Amino acid sequence: MRLIGSxxxxxxxxxxxxxxxxxxxxxxxxxxxxxxxGRSQVEALHDVELEIPAGGYVALTGPSGxxxxxxLSLIGGLERPQSGTLTVGQHDLRALRVDELAAYRRATIGFxxxxxxxxxxxxxxxxxxxxxxxxxxxxxxxxxxxxLEDVGLLDRAEHRPGQLSGGERQRVAIARALVNxxxxxxxxxxxxxxxxxxxMRVLDxxxxxxxxxxxxxxxxxxxxxVAQRAEQRYxxxxxxxxx
Length: 243
Description:
29% of the residues lie in helices and 27% in strands. With 243 residues, it is α/β, with parallel strands linked by helices. It has one domain (53-80, 97-242): P-loop containing nucleotide triphosphate hydrolases (Rossmann fold, 3-Layer(aba) Sandwich). Strand 3 and strand 4 (40-52) form a beta hairpin. Helix 3 (124-133) packs parallel to helix 5 and helix 4 (144-150) packs across helix 5. The radius of gyration is 17 Å and the shape is globular.
């Protein structure tokens, strides 16, 4: 197995901001976020203070409903914090417009999910190529077959998800997340649906990507054994962050 070396991705411009791949240090200052549930307001995050250096490897643990996935959604630009300051690199995510947030996600973020998120009717190669086609630019895009070789699945390129094991499907999902050479990987329970042996192989791969590409890695997990492998560990409980 080989991994393509990290390289600078192109700059992408929107109307008011320049969106770049470089600089993925994460800073949250007094970040709170809440949802409406009927007539009630549910606070998902409360006054969160967090700093993750560019190139860091952080695990986030906590019980269900603690706010872990909400925090990933905010950092990933899928939602905006309702109070406080959230910056990734030089980007103030609360200040970006919808189109600018989309450009930020394409230029900066690689998402990995517990349930893989692969399309059943497409082969492994086609799932990756579909993700690549959604990019605003073809420059900096990494070839699907090269990425499958990186994750040790080139011989399974034409197999559909139903023909792959859980561990193989997650490796395809990792390859898809790397298609635009992201500087920040957000992994939400990436081993949650895997047996112990497959989980360790997936973690080994993520950590190799983190080291060889120099990207920032943030992993949400219920598994303390997974969290122990990170350089920094935090716990969310009731929307409050504990070191």
